[in-house]
Design goal:
Shape: elongated
Structural class: alpha+beta
Helix content: 25-40%
Largest sheet: 8 strands, antiparallel
CATH superfamily of the largest domain: Cyclophilin-like
CATH architecture of the largest domain: Beta Barrel
Radius of gyration: 43 Å
Length: 305
């Protein structure tokens, strides 16, 4: 009688109860090894990596504990021999591994998508608009500079828009650490780029022009501007001389220095107009301290109480 026929007889006896089911499994296993091309090995479907030792224990009717979780959907244990050449992994194992791999993939993809979305939101979120405050009719600002104290008196009536912006900048502590980056002897001392470039960007909002209410005499404080209309933002200068020619160019003073003009005259002028305003806007003090370390600066600027 052939092995297949004997296995069929064993199967009928197992069904009728004359043989235990584990004996049938062992017979089917050995039949499958001998008839790989014409006989399916169902025992291989139960264990991802069966071995002859396991089948022998089944024939001896010794109890065998099969951990299906360890054999289906996970790598084989070390004590098992690898699959025979040409033998295919059970379908159940492939399905379980595919689901596990997909689950890990989607979890990882979800984390990546959420991270990218969070970064995009943080970058696209607009910065808070600067707080513009209305200035008092007259107020004083105390500058504590590297050359000594300087006191300015601002009159809102002279240039309302400029006075309001200067008052708001001082209240926001914008000028703390700002360098006097442009010093032309006999002409002007200029400042207005924040120590932190992010702060410069935040306040880079032009204000409307004001009509010239007084002349640009020595000691007056005026906003810098370009040739374009309404181009004043955060940069100011102190006139070191009488510069009436600036009146016709629509530079409207907002106040004057009432104390400490002698300290203003001592501000370092060795670099002239060499510092680049574009680099100041992009890098702040990191650029100025590296390239122009001798610049004088404002330690603090506060509205006098």
């Amino acid at each position: 009688m052939s092995e297949v026929a004997r296995t069929g007889s064993a199967m009928r006896r197992a069904v009728s109860g004359t043989r235990p089911a584990r004996y049938l499994c062992a017979r089917i296993y050995y039949a499958g090894l001998r008839h790989k091309e014409s006989f399916i090995n169902p025992f291989r479907m139960l264990c991802s990596n069966p071995c002859r030792h396991t089948a022998d224990r089944l024939c001896r009717r010794e109890p065998v504990r099969v951990n299906l979780r360890a054999r289906i959907g996970s790598p084989p244990l070390r004590r098992h021999r690898p699959h025979q050449t040409g033998a295919s992994r059970p379908t159940a194992t492939l399905v379980a591994m595919s689901i596990s791999d997909l689950s890990r993939f989607f979890r990882a993809a979800g984390v990546v998508i959420l991270t990218v979305f969070a970064i995009a939101c943080s970058r696209s979120k607009p910065a808070a608009a600067p707080v513009e405050e209305k200035a008092p009719a007259t107020f004083r600002v105390n500058l504590d500079t590297s050359r000594g104290p300087v006191v300015m008196e601002i009159t809102r009536e002279l240039a309302p828009n400029g006075a309001d912006r200067f008052y708001s900048l001082v209240r926001a502590k914008y000028f703390d650490g700002a360098r006097f980056y442009r010093v032309v002897p006999g002409f002007v001392v200029q400042w207005g780029g924040a120590a932190d470039p992010a702060l410069s960007k935040l306040w880079d909002v032009p204000i409307p022009d004001d009509p010239v209410g007084t002349t640009n005499a020595r000691g007056t404080v005026t906003f810098a501007a370009s040739n374009a209309p309404s181009s004043r933002t955060t940069h100011l200068f102190i006139n070191l001389a009488d510069n009436q020619r600036l009146d016709s160019m629509h530079f409207a003073p907002i106040g004057k220095v009432v104390s400490g003009m002698e300290n203003v005259d001592q501000i370092y002028s060795g670099y002239g107009e060499r510092p680049d305003q574009q680099q100041i806007a992009e890098q702040g003090n990191a650029y100025l301290e590296k390239e122009f370390p001798n610049l004088d600066y404002i330690k603090t600027a506060r509205v006098a109480q």
